[in-house]
Amino acid sequence: MSVHSQRRPRAVPLPGISPVATARRSDDVAAQIRNLIIRERLAEGARLPAERELAERFGASRPTVSQALRSLSLMGLVEIRHGSGAYVVRRPEAMVTASVNLMLDLDRDSAGHLMDLRLWLEDTGVREAAERRTGLAAADGAEQDAAIVAALGRLRDTSGTVSELVAADTVFHAAVVRAAANPYLTAIYESVHGAVLSCQLRSWVDTDSAPLWLRHGGPEHQWALHEPIAAAVAAGDTVGARAAVYRHHEAMLAHLAAARPPC
Known about the structure:
This protein is mainly alpha-helical and 263 residues long. Helix content is 70%, strand content 3%. It has a two-stranded antiparallel sheet. Helix 5 packs across helix 9 (183-200) and helix 7 (138-156) runs antiparallel to helix 11.
């Protein structure tokens, strides 16, 4: 028995699965798993069955299941951990995410507007987080800093796989915006951020092929983009935090332009 199999937790059962028979079977698989996560109230961190078992229970191929899990990871419902499996991520703002994604599906040419909205939301978040940091008591400030530093460390320590980089990136930006202490801002931001990632990584979902900008960048590039944001917020530097967010935004615009086709 391998070290991974000894350490990973037991997979949760998924009752009610039925074979799929739609034109785009991965969407049906993703929808069934999504509904099970909600209906069965699967706990944060619960491990889903292995791809082979899911494929057998759905009557689908493993590539179809793999594609469905990648889609769920972009929705924020599942986190794919290399060598360990897929784990549930609970996000109560799922309906906001669904609405944003539906708007994008209805108008693919609106991706640029979505990028602008993401920037405005994060700009507000880091401004408020940095201003709030200067007024926090020492213990509360240290707690806020620790959450952001931990998220930044996760980004630095990824193995470089697309799923891990995407998960770490999402956790970092959520931690920074969450420091503004407005849960609605955080929820809306995460939904918009997830929709932007869906555009940038559509080829990864469909083909399991890492986009060019991730293959050439990797954790080091991501660290260089994100560390200045964390440092400025911790220092209560509103101007520096906003400037770092705008530099990150410019890099994301380049990433989106490199996506072929966009979204």
